[in-house]
Amino acid sequence: MRLSMISAALVAALVGYGSTIALVLAAAAAVQASPEQTASWVLAICFAKAFGSALLSYTNKVPVVLAWSTPGAALIAATEGVTMPQAVAAFLLASLLITLTATLRPLSRAVAAIPDGIAAAMLAGVLFPFCIKGMEASKLAPTLVLPMVGLFLLVRLRNPAVAVLAALSLGLVLAFTIGGATLPALSLAAPAPVLILPEWSTGVLIGLGLPLYLVTMASQNLPGFATMRAHGFAPPVTQALAVSGGISTISAFFGAHTVNMAAITAAICMGDDVHPDRSQRWKVGLAYAGVWVLLGLFSPAILTLLSALPPEVMGALVALALLGPLMGALTGAFVPAETRFAATMTVAVTASGIAAFGIGAAFWGLAAGLAVWMLERVAKR
């Protein structure tokens, strides 16, 4: 295997892990996961991405790169009053729906019928509060957060993909030098998977499971397929949905939320610099899988290190990681003129965090946007 393949896989995996691991930890905290369950979550999702990427790349001979659902993690982190077993049930529902989308045309048509602007607006409403709270951290710990933001902005001018990773690196240095954080004892013990049986709650399934499925499909899988097409590869759409959904169903029992097609990190693995022979470029998926196995095995030490960081640093990292997805979601929400007001309503309701009947704000935001859109359509007839 060429060194360029290993290098591309390493960069892609480190960018994907380092730029959003803080968000996964926030999601785990929101659903009251124990430290052991959090470690199991990270281990399971790392292994799920590794297995799925290797299998899809090998069987299709094209570079297929899977990622965890970053918008999905933000959605989970925004929930309140949800337990880990209830979250596992929501993860199972989302995973099963992704799998069924590969085979049931009525389901795929129903998802496609949701206007792009409203779907993007729901995602924007989920992400916006995190960006606001993260920026507020600069007031609470300016000596730690402002240098991170400055470095992020400078690195982003040259290489946006590693900007958050650079901010994380600086945050670690500042936290353990001037921030008062104490370097913990890092354990190299192998992580242990924790079986978590689901607890079925109708409100959580509707308020978390269904939106998790929708944001994963709209903001992860579809852009991931588009990224492959843009690089001249035919994406194995049906197989990718079936495999990622099936793997996510298994990993959900160990606390992991959904895996899906990657977009930004996938682009790192598909360029001409990875391998001049396009027919050989699929092998980067195997190298990518190997890196994720290592990240999963060393996750206890990594999580211990990150848990020692001040909350302001972690909040700022989450905000910086979500600025790009927020920009994309807002753009997608307000470009279509025919759904612009409905999208505005969706953003407002979702970002408010309102919950009713045990169902979270993401569902109500989507429902409000669809109601406004259908009302406007009826009025125009």
Integer-rounded radius of gyration? 20 Å
Portion of residues in beta strands equals under 5%
pLDDT under 50 segments (min length 5)? none
Shape: globular
Can you write the helix and strand succession as a string? HHEHHHHHHHHEHHHHHH
Order of strands across the main sheet? 1-2
Overall structural domain count: 1
Major sheet size, sense and barrel closure: 2 strands, antiparallel
The CA-CA distance between the termini, in Å, is 61 Å
Integer average pLDDT: 88
How many extended strands?
A: 2
DSSP summary: helix tally: 16
Q: Helical amount among residues, as a percent range?
A: over 70%
Structure description:
This protein has 381 residues and is an all-alpha fold. It has one domain. It is built from 16 helices and 2 strands. It has a two-stranded antiparallel sheet.
Secondary-structure topology with pairs:
Elements lengths: L2 H28 L4 H26 L5 E3 L1 H8 L6 H18 L3 H9 L2 H25 L1 H17 L4 H15 L24 H29 L6 H16 L6 E3 L2 H5 L15 H14 L1 H9 L3 H24 L5 H13 L8 H20 L1
Antiparallel strand pairs: 1-2
Key structural traits:
2% strand; two-stranded antiparallel sheet; 72% helix; 381 residues; globular; 16 helices; mainly alpha; 2 strands
Short description:
The chain is an all-alpha fold and 381 residues long. The chain contains 16 helices and two strands. The protein has one domain.
